[in-house]
Each structure stands twice: as C-alpha cells, then as structure tokens.
Amino acid sequence: MKKIIASILTVLLLLSLLATSALAASLEQNTAQRINLERAARGIAALEISTVLGGKARVKAQDMAENGYFSHTSPTYGSPFTMMRTLGVSYRSAAENIAMGYTKADTVVAAWMASPSHRESLLSSRYSVLGVGYYNGYWAAWLIR
After folding, report:
1. Which segments of the chain are extended strands (E)?
2. Do 57 and 128 meet the contact criterion of CB atoms below 8 Å apart?
3. How confident is the model at residue 17 (pLDDT cuts 50, 70, 90)?
4. What is the DSSP string of 74-139?
5. Residue 41: exposure state from Cβ atoms within 10 A (0-12, 13-18, ≥19)
6. Side by side, which strands form the sheet with 48-49?
7. Using CA atoms, how far apart are residues 62 and 76, in angstroms rounded to an integer?
8. Which strand (E) or helix (H) includes residue 128?
9. Sign of the C-alpha dihedral, residues 27, 125, 97, 119?
C-alpha cells in the first residue's frame, strides 16, 4: 500500500512539474509575441523568437529566483554578457531586460515599455533574435544579433 501511495504521489509531482513548465513556456511565448506587437505598432521589424535563447534566459530567471537577487549581475555567472557566453550564446550585440513580480505577459511588457532603457532595448533595430525566460515570478528577456 505504501508503494502505491508513493507511486501516486510521484506521478502527481511529475504532472505538477509538467504543468508548471508548460505554463512558463506559454508565458514566455506570449511575452515574446507582445514584444513583437509593440515593435509592429511602430513599424519596426519583428524579432525572431528563439525558444533555445529563451531557455537560456530562463536560466537567468531561475538563477535570480534561487539565489535571491534581482540584478543584471549574477553572483553565479557575473555580467549578462559573461553569462550568455558561458551558456553558449554567440552574439555581436546583446541586451538583457529583467523583471520581478509580474505574472502576466501584458503586465511585464507594459512595465518594460514604461522604462526608457528597457523600451529602448525592446524596440532597437540592433537586435534580431529574442528569447524570454520566466521562473517563479522572475523574468529575463535576452536580445541578440
């Protein structure tokens, strides 16, 4: 009986993790699409949405959540640019937007658009690829060319 209960709990935990992962992926995709809508409204070319880059941006979001910091500089990896290189991201030009406490794509994008420096990176023609990462209320958007 204990083995059956343990098996059921294991299955429920796995299903919960899958649901959480699917929710994060949906939030990331919706956020990236909203960023491209902001660009389109201003006649700026859409960014290529990269789930690979988004997965690496999620590492940044997770690093902030698990290490209890909110900063572009990671105690684990250093600067965003060092972190990108450490994670195998190649780029000629790069930017990072971070946020904390937002649970919806529209609100995090609105917050970034209300900040001059974040807005500039999201609307810049210097970047061609976007990856968005979300983890437990922490966000990272990586833009590269």
Report:
1. 48-49, 94-100, 129-135, 138-144
2. no
3. very low
4. BTTTBSHHHHHHHTT---SSEEEEEEES--SHHHHHHHHHHSHHHHHHHH-TT--EEEEEEETTEE
5. exposed
6. 48-49, 129-135, 138-144, 94-100
7. 11
8. none
9. negative
Band (5; pLDDT cuts 50, 70, 90): confident
Please give the single-letter amino acid code of residue 41. Answer: A
Digit-coded pLDDT (tens) for 88-121: 999 999 999 999 999 999 999 999 999 999 999 9
Length of the chain: 145
Tokens of 30: 């919706």
CA geometry: angle at 8 spanning 6 and 14, to 5°? 100
CA distances from 117 to 102, 107, 113 (A): 18, 17, 9
pTM (predicted TM-score): 0.85
